[in-house]
Amino acid sequence: xxxxxxxxxxxxxxxxxxxxxxxxxxxxxxxxxxxxxxxxxxxxxxxxxxxxxxxxxxxxxxxxxxxxxxxxxxxxxxxxxxxxxxxxxxxxxxxxxxxxxxxxxxxxxxxxxxxxxxxxxxxxxxxxxxxxxxxxxxxxxxxxxxxxxxxxxxxxxxxxxxxxxxxxxxxxxxxxxxxxxxxxxxxxxxxxxxxxxxxxxxxxxxxxxxxxxxxxxxxxxxxxxxxxxxxxxxxxxxxxxxxxxxxxxxxxxxxxxxxxxxxxxxxxxxxxxxxxxxxxxxxxxxxxxxxxxxxxxxxxxxxxxxxxxxxxxxxxxxxxxxxxxxxxxxxxxxxxxxxxxxxxxxxxxxxxxxxxxxxxxxxxxxxxxxxxxxxxxxxxxxxxxxxxxxxxxxxxxxxxxxxxxxxxxxxxxxxxxxxxxxxxxxxxxxxxxxxxxxxxxxxxxxxxxxxxxxxxxxxxxxxxxxxxxxxxxxxxxxxxxxxxxxxxxxxxxxxxxxxxxxxxxxxxxxxxxxxxxxxxxxxxxxxxxxxxxxxxxxxxxxxxxxxxxxxxxxxxxxxxxxxxxxxxxxxxxxxxxxxxxxxxxxxxxxx
Length: 591
Fold this sequence. Notes:
Blueprint: H1 3-9, H2 12-36, H3 42-64, E1 65-68, E2 71-74, H4 85-111, E3 142-146, E4 150-151, H5 159-174, E5 179-181, H6 184-187, H7 197-204, E6 208-217, E7 220-229, E8 234-244, H8 248-262, H9 279-292, H10 297-313, H11 318-333, H12 339-356, H13 361-375, H14 378-391, H15 396-409, H16 412-425, H17 430-442, H18 446-459, H19 466-476, H20 480-489, H21 493-506, H22 510-521, H23 530-539, H24 543-555, H25 577-586
Helix pairs in contact: 2-3, 2-4, 5-8, 5-9, 9-10, 9-11, 10-11, 11-12, 11-13, 12-13, 13-14, 13-15, 14-15, 15-16, 15-17, 16-17, 17-18, 17-19, 18-19, 19-20, 19-21, 20-21, 21-22, 21-23, 23-24, 24-25
């Protein structure tokens, strides 16, 4: 009898198939239970290793042993007349069919049922992190910074166009796995400053710098770009394009292609391309993006007007749809408009962008922010974030949201790693150190958290709420005098009064604490500080008042409630049965 026939007779093939299907099902169950039970991240890797090691053992036992009515016996001791291998084979066939049916049902449920909160028209599929393309190890990636292109046009107001073109090139290069591209906020921090290429390389930790200039005259543009080796301060490549304005998309693609060629990068996938639209629509988009960056009501409303005009020209332009969604989020979050209609409109723009381009990470990030801050649905937010990172692994905003999600889950190690990745990609951005500071605070690494917030202050001395964030960490570390000083330095009175109420209480100065709390309660916009009022009462041991203000904050959809489960300022409430009841109501939207 041939080896193949003997393997078949002894049911080795059937055992192999059954083992693989069972192993796959166990791994899927592990993916679900490991995070739910807060088990270590290596649990799934250990499970996979054990299953892999068990495979050859299963094949060996299928070959060397046989199941008989008297039990398991060595195969060589069972005569052909006594063998019930054919009967066992039919049982294994039925088992395999049943297991495959379970696998198909699970696959269908994973693909569709878990996404029932997402409108069908968005064409989203559940993200599978394991399916994401493997990132190139950091040591093998070429580090590049794209500086803002100089505006050489006669019209100084065309600067939004030169900045926008450089940012689009930056975004293209960031999608190439073999490159580590510094984020916009860090690279553009050199704008208008006197610096050398060596300064850029040292500050950003990059090997190459891409710089250029743009001159626009009517419908014509001249774009010059050059790639510089930081170590030798020499030009690796330089080129100039004289084109019609409508060819600006091709120019950006050609710059990205020239950079990869100069660095001798062998691409596995096709070079990413910019979204192409009407030239006038693109101009409106760049101008609107610049306006939204000013973060004022007037600039946001002007950006909205430009983007609505853009959509009349190109209703399906994904970046325009997402940017309009960001405008709506800004207007709603800062109470320039009613929150409910603004957030719902933003959600609609996000889904329309995904319909137009299912791989556009920016659309998933927009929807993730809505899921976080408006829906309070962590599960849905996680799926959107996974999808964004799958399509753009280097996206700093995606990593920021991922870090925030880990904060809410109490996964301190994971949130710190995400935040550290942000700092590497965006080393001169205050926002990176803001996220790192909060991640370290949650991990109870107070000295490191203080250092991160002080670094943010050095980068963005006028940033809102950073003094309060630093003061909170000092308070938790027991450095009360320093905490009071930082709360004093915070421009927002609500944070100052809330901080004084807590800190003076811990210092044993009851009268000062009472006075600070009264000042907080007397603010005209005290409803906007509901979460902070609740925290102050909780620290002071006033549980009834704390829960009253938590309920009030929930009615107002206060964004400060997002961190209720992990906030150390609410520790005095956790043993109270009302706390768990409140948390259930807080996340009721996930049911």
